[in-house]
Amino acid sequence: MSPTLPVGNIILDDTLMAQWAPYVYWEGMLSPQRWAPWIDVLSSNGYFDQNARVGLVTYDTPMHRRIVEQVVTPALTRAHHAPVDVAYTSEPGSVAGWVRARRNSATSSCASAADRSTT
């Protein structure tokens, strides 16, 4: 089972929280800018195989791109597992659309990664 970070419509990064303050305050939320130690702990506990190839699937929004570029990719790179690919998908308008988009994006991304690994 692969660990996942809870990226979705309920996540607000520091940039969005600053824009929305003082109207929005989310006391119990862990800012995505604080996710890097989670990746560090996975790495230090031997989660990643030495030859692991890591890919990311996330939404194609400015916030999600900031999280990937400023937090997740640098943490994975420090762990010597820089992402081999990042698949950005549009935010669906429904739960059924979300499941379909996630399945299709992950399937095509995995197929692309498999094709690249055999060449």
- Proportion of β residues? 5-15%
Give, in spatial order, the strands making up the sheet with the most strands.
1-2
What structural category arises from helix and sheet content?
A: mainly alpha
Counting H and I runs of at least 4 residues, what is the number of helices?
4
Shape: globular
Biggest β-sheet strands, sense, barrel: 2 strands, parallel
Order of helices and strands: HHEHEH
- The portion of residues assigned to helices is 40-55%
- Unreliable residue runs: none
Mean pLDDT across the residues is: 79
Distance between the termini: 27 Å
How would you sum up this structure, described in words?
There is one protein chain. This protein is mainly alpha-helical and 119 residues long. The chain has a domain at 54-119. It is 47% helix and 8% strand. It has a two-stranded parallel sheet.
